[in-house]
Amino acid sequence: MIGAVAFARAAGVEPHLDNRPRLRRALPFGPLAPSSFRLEGPDALPEAPVRFARDAAAFGAITSNELTDRERRYWSLLETQRAAATAVSDTGYYRALSPGQYLI
Asked: pLDDT for 11-23, tens place per residue?
């Protein structure tokens, strides 16, 4: 998954969590589906959010937006990492992550 996210980031199609509140659980914790890479960027599709939600639910893992205890712990780590990356960027050593973008 890390490779796919790095590739998506380089291609300008990485999904931004802040842009997709209804997919806030499915994107980081759901399946790696092609439709998730059509949410943003030059080839974004208007039906991509619905398609990705359906794809995530099809696997049975993401049937609601309610985070599990484990996902809450991971989410906290992501938030901490994002804050640290932004702080480092403020010193000029690392570029800031855009809203909704997380290091994985």
From this structure: 999 998 889 989 9
